[in-house]
Amino acid sequence: MRHDYEAVIGLEVHCQLLTASKAFSPESTQFGDPPNTNVDPISLGHPGTLPVLNQQVVEYTIRMGLATHCKIAERSIFARKHYFYPDLPKGYQISQYETPICYDGWIEIELEPEGDGQEPVRKRIGIIRIHMEEDAGKSLHDQDPYHTLLDFNRCGVPLIEIVSAPDIRSPREAALYMQKIRQIVRYLGISDGNMEEGSLRCDANVSVRRRGEARLGTKTEIKNLNSFRNVERALEYEIRRQIAILEQGGEVVQETRLWDAVRQETRPMRSKEEAHDYRYFPDPDLVPVVVTADMLERIRSQMPEMPEVRRRRFIEELGLPAYDAGVLTEERGVADYYEATLQALARLMPDGDRKVQAKAVSNFVMTEVLRVLNERSIDMQAFPIEPERLAKLVRLRLEDRVSSTGAQEIFNAMLTDQRSPEAIAEAHNLLQVSDENALIPVVEAVLAEHPDKVQTYLNGKTGLLGFFIGQVMRRFEGAPDPKLVRRLLEERLEAARAAGQETK
């Protein structure tokens, strides 16, 4: 983007809630079921049917409001949003309009530091409102060459719409904002946040203006943003397009545009004149939602520790580096697993240094556990090693009973072998020998067999110590502790040096 222009971006994020039944009817919300199997007369809009509000939808929405520092309305109402489209059988969508349940909140995103060694920049993005609504059905255009097919399973699935203030100034900030929203809904357990399944969708409003101007430019709305990458690329393209129009003396037209991921461009969908007049009015079939102080306090007491609070605690109480704390708290499942492993290790080693243990577990989770999750494309629920078993492996490493290479080999075996880490180590001859009396004869034999190299070492070529260590490690049956081998060799080589000096 040219430096003399700035973008002004606001996002409307739609998030499907993880309720077992729909917002106003009892059908299942299970994703992937056969088309038109999760429907009933209410979601299909049959005459004479009446909606019944799913109370869990209200509680999940309040959770999101509390997590994003919103005010919670004591009284809010549902409205009918009217438009005609084949996948909306009622002819209207139940939503909220003038009185959303959550309003006036914010979240913080963390921008990359501008230079080496600098701290990340934290930026606050305002939340104008969060409201409840129901989803529409799905039109399938690629199943039949001559017809568009309709799947009404999604009709009535509960959504929340999160409307940001126009505080976002770049495509990168927009993607970070979306990632933060997904992190929050997953931590709260109210949505899986899977963009590929449509659980998290985004529309973007974007305009450009010259830097320093207070007046907003003409905005366009971009739809069909179903991945973080598409959010960034669509906004980058649209910003360039609008700047080019203004530079040529033209005017940006207020319109809705569709992101074409194949052509990597936005294209017109409808103009301002063609925009829907939704004719909102209060839904006469639904009573107002009243949030009492007791209800709000109960929901607040059930809130999990949020990522930023947890990250700060990991740094301050456990002594973890900021990078480790950020990685470990990115996903709630990973953070829970980390803490469960650390607690199990504390029970195994009650007298150990808490911060040393915290870093040791962090190293295992960040390198080995996350590697397996990424390689297998699984989440923590499908990870095969329980926290207690990993804690036993970490203990073996902290006690120097296995080497770092041996620990990695044991970890890989534990993915399919349910035996204890110690049993696996014994079976694979990976337990380090720390018995000096057993090692001393081997150390002395190696030195006796290489007198020329011993003399070269004594003459100053100390790099030969690695040769001696390797000889001992290969000759000894088992896995001797390398630190102990090094110490024993150094003691005997220094003794030889001292003896040589005495004879001079």
What does this structure look like?
The chain folds into three domains: 5-298, no CATH class; 305-430, no CATH class; 433-503, Arc Repressor Mutant, subunit A. It is α+β, with helices and mostly antiparallel strands and 504 residues long. α3 links the parallel β12 and β13. The chain is built from 15 helices and 18 strands. α2 runs antiparallel to α3 (228-247), α9 runs antiparallel to α10 (404-414) and α12 (436-449) packs across α15. Strands 2-6-7-10-1-11-12-13-14 form a nine-stranded mixed beta sheet. It has a three-stranded antiparallel beta sheet with strand order 5-4-15, with no helix packed on it. The chain has a two-stranded antiparallel sheet with strand order 3-16. The longest helix has 23 residues, at 354-376.
Task: Order the strands across the largest sheet as they lie in space.
Answer: 2-6-7-10-1-11-12-13-14
How many domains? 3
Give the uncertain stretches in residue-range form: none
Beta fraction:
15-25%
Number of strands: 18
- pLDDT average, as an integer? 92
Major sheet attributes? 9 strands, mixed
Shape: elongated
Distance between the termini: 77 Å
Cα Rg: 31 Å
Structural class: alpha+beta
- Put simply, the count of helices is 15
Helix content: 40-55%
GO molecular function: asparaginyl-tRNA synthase (glutamine-hydrolyzing) activity; ATP binding; glutaminyl-tRNA synthase (glutamine-hydrolyzing) activity; transferase activity
Domain Asn/Gln amidotransferase: 336-493
Keywords: ATP-binding, Ligase, Nucleotide-binding, Protein biosynthesis, Transferase
Catalytic activity: L-glutamyl-tRNA(Gln) + L-glutamine + ATP + H2O = L-glutaminyl-tRNA(Gln) + L-glutamate + ADP + phosphate + H(+); L-aspartyl-tRNA(Asn) + L-glutamine + ATP + H2O = L-asparaginyl-tRNA(Asn) + L-glutamate + ADP + phosphate + 2 H(+)
